[in-house]
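User: Hi! I'm working on a homework problem where we have to compare a predicted structure to a textbook description. Could you give me the structure for the chain below?
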Amino acid sequence: MLNGFQLVNAHIYCATRFAYEIINPHGSVMTHGLWQQLDLLRSGRFVDLTHAFEAGIPHAPGMPDEERVTLYDIEQGKGTLGAGFLTHQYRHVGQWGTHVDPPAHFVRGGRFLDEIPVSDMLLPLVAFDVRQGVAANHDYELDLSDVRAWEQRHGRMPPRAFAVMQTGWSSRWPSAAAMRNADVNGVARFPGWSIETLRFLIEERDACAFGHETTDTDAGVKVSADEYPAERYLLEQDRYQIELLADLSCVPAAGAVAVVSFPKPRRGSGFPARVFAICPSDADAL
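Assistant: Happy to help. Predicted structure tokens:
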């Protein structure tokens, strides 16, 4: 059984070892380089942290809805350009569904999507579980006490981690009204990050990227006032983030690995992402 940071340590070990082992001298079965460690990862529990996207899904105010056109269809008469195979044309903003925001999304001169290296897409996953606090206060902001409590239980947070805010908010998907959770005055009420916490995680723990289940980094009351201080700070520090993550309640607080992937549009300012976690198989991992 896998536990703790065994999955992450396996990557570090095999990357430095970079050797191959011949299991059968007659050549019927051989394990080269990292293949043996891949078997270790495959023994873990996979969790898809990505919502499927389509027209009408929850999204940030002011962003247009998705448009999808069938250019070619397998059947005759259904594609606008022809038949014989299925091809769609998609039109949507970069910040659509579970998506990535690079620094350039807010920062002039910041890195675009094509400038984020693939080495920053395989990361130890650190999940801060604030579901209890959010249930009591929808305006909850993750603060340093949450980080201290995590480290008291799991040890010092590993560097270059994918730090996520585990709020349970994705259970409201796909209802846009439930995700926004507006009060009688039309003010959105959903949780967010505090700048103080982001500063600590970046400056003191060297977090590589951040993620959350809501549409924005900042709490809803700030977004409703057209204020984005936490998101601006995060992107100004040359970090990237993933918004609208799914099923974070299914990952452990520590010990999992996150695979954070997204396309490579040149000078891209955002794009739908595919994110998943490989979790320890321990029954008590959560």
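For your comparison, note the following. Residues 11-25 have pLDDT under 50 and may be disordered. The CA atoms of residues 19 and 33 lie 5 Å apart. Good luck with the assignment!
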